[in-house]
Amino acid sequence: MKAVNELRLHHRRGGRGPAFMAAPDRVDQLEIIEIASGEIVLFWDLAPRDAARRARVMTEDLQTLETIDFLAKWSGDL
User: Are 19 and 49 in contact (CB under 8 A)?
Assistant: First the structure.
């Protein structure tokens, strides 16, 4: 089953402004949540620009990869 049917990406921003205008000390959070249980299965604290870039790539992967492949790809050290 495609990952988009079982997982969702939540991007929690550490401030109101866009990533390119973010303060140097701002931290954004990315969470991959299992829809069935509501549990967080993957989590990252990142600089705003890195979080925005990674969220775009992860959104594409959610649409194209199977759940097991998505988790295998993103669960390693990045």
Answer: yes
Residue 7 and residue 15: Cα distance in Å, rounded? 25
For the entire predicted model, the pTM comes to: 0.84
Residues 55-77 as b or e (16 or more Cβ within 10 Å = b):
beebeebbeebebeebbeebeee
Average pLDDT on 40-51 reads 94
Nearby residues of 51 by Cβ (< 8 Å), 6 or more positions away:
11, 13, 19, 28, 29, 30, 44
Does 1 have pLDDT greater than 80? Answer: yes
Bridge partners (DSSP) listed for residue 40:
33
Residue 18 phi, psi (nearest 5): -70, 165
